[in-house]
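Sharing a chain and its predicted structure for anyone who wants a worked example. Both blocks are below, sequence first, C-alpha cells second.
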Amino acid sequence: MAVKLHSAEIVGLDGEIIDVEIDLARGLFRFSVVGLADKAVDEARERVSSAIKNSGLKPPQAKNRRVIVSLAPADLKKEGPLFDLAIALSYLLASKQLFFDPSDKIFFGELALDGHLRKIKGALALSMAAASRGFKEIILPEENAREASLVSNIKIFGAKSLGDVARHLSGEAAIPEYPSTVPEKAPLYPVDFGDIRGQETAKRGLEIAAAGGHHALMVGPPGTGKTMLARALPSILPPLDFEEILEVTKIHSIAGTLKKDLECVRPFRSPHHTSSYVALVGGGQYPRPGEITLAHRGVLFLDEFPEFERRVLEALRQPLEEGTVTVSRAKGTLTFPARALTIFAMNPCPCGNFGSERKPCLCSQVSLERYQRKVSGPIADRIDLWLEVPYFDHEKLSGASEKESEGVRSRVVRAREIQKKRFSGTTIKLNSEMGVKDLEQYAPLSANVRAMLQNASRKLDFSARAYHRVIKLARTIADLEGAETISENHLAEALHYRPKKQFFVYEV
C-alpha cells in the first residue's frame, strides 16, 4: 500500500515542499530510502525504527516486509534529519497503525531513539513555505512552535514526541494549537553613545549612517574608541518591524545561530580578520549564508579592515552596492540578502601613528603604502563616510557618562519616517538604496547646489559612483534636519566626509 505525506527542506533561505511516499510489500525485510538522500537522511531508517518501537508501536522489523521510502522531487538533494517525523508517520499510516487524513498537514522533526522530537533548523522558512502552498496544519517539535507561529493563516502544533503526535492524529489526546506570536519589545543595547567620550565628529557621522543606511569607515590610532563606536551603533537604530523580524529570524534559524525563539534585536556581526571567504560571503557544497547575510538588517563591523584577505574584501563589492550577495557553486547558484549597515575600522598605518602630532610614525614609506593600498579603489568608492577618530584629551575620560543613544535614535527614527513616506509605493526603504534614476525624482538639486557639487567633483576627481553617493548622503543630512530640499550646507557636510589626505599617502 502506497501512502504520501508532506515535509519540507531548506534550499538557500527558502523552504521547498518534499513529498514523502512509502510503499509496503511482502518479502524479506528491507528498509530503503530513495530520492538523492544524504547520509543523515539515509540513517533515518534506524532512528525511525527505534522511535516507533520505543513509542509502543510496531516497527518495520516486526514483520517481513519491504519498505521503500521515496523523497520527491527525486532530483533535489535531501539533507538533514527533519524528514524523520514524516517518514515515521507515513509508515504508521501505511501499516494501518494510524488512521488520519494527511492531505492538508505537513510534518517536520528529527526523532530521538526514544521517540522524542528534537529541535530543527529553519522552522520559520519551512512554515512560510507550507503556508504559501495552502497547508492547514503544521506539526513540528515543541521547541520550534513559537518560531513557526510567526506565520499566519496556518495552525501550529508543537509536539514533544512521536507518541504525542500519534495520539493527536488518532484523536486520543489532542495537542493544543500554539497561539500566534507577538514579537517582544527589543531590549536596550548595553553600549550607549554616552559611554564614548569625545569623538563628536565620528558620532555625528554614525548618526547620518544610521539614518540613511550609509556605509562608513573609521580611521584612527589604536585605543581611540573605534570598536566601541561600532558596538554602540545598534543602540541608535530603530527597532525591527515585523517584516524585518521575519527576515532576520528566518536567516538565523537556517544558519543555526538563533539564540532565542525569535530574533527581535538588530544583528551585530564582527567577524575576525582571519575569517575565510566562505565564512564571510557564504558557500559550501550546498550554499549556506555567511557573515554578510547574518548581519542583514543590522550592523556588519569589520575591524582591522586592511588585515582581511584581499579576496574577501573584494567580495564586498556586490553587497555594498546592491544589498545582496550571489554564491555560485557546482550544485547551484543562490542569492542571499545582505542589506547590512557596514562599518569598517582601520589604523592609518601599521603602527597606528601616521598623521599624529603626539607620536611619531615608525613605518617605512613602503610598508605604509602597502598597508593603505589594501583598501582598493572600488571598495573605497562604495564607502560614503570617512570618519576621523583621533586621539582625545585625557580630561574627557573623567566624570559620569550620560545617556545619548535615546536622543540620537529619536532623530534617526524621524529621518527614516521621512524616507518611508518619500519612498511609499516603491521597493526603496532608505536613501542609500536609491538608484541613479531615482535621484532626480527624490533628491533634486538647485542650480547653486549642483554647481557647488560639480566644482567639488572636478577638484576631488570624483567617479560617477562617488558623485551620486554624495547626493544620497546630502539627502540624508537634510532629512535629519527635516529640510524639504538639499541646501549648500547639507552638501558641504556630505563633502566633508570624503577621504582626508592627511590620513592617506595616496588618493582613493
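Comments welcome. The first strand starts at residue 2 and ends at 11.
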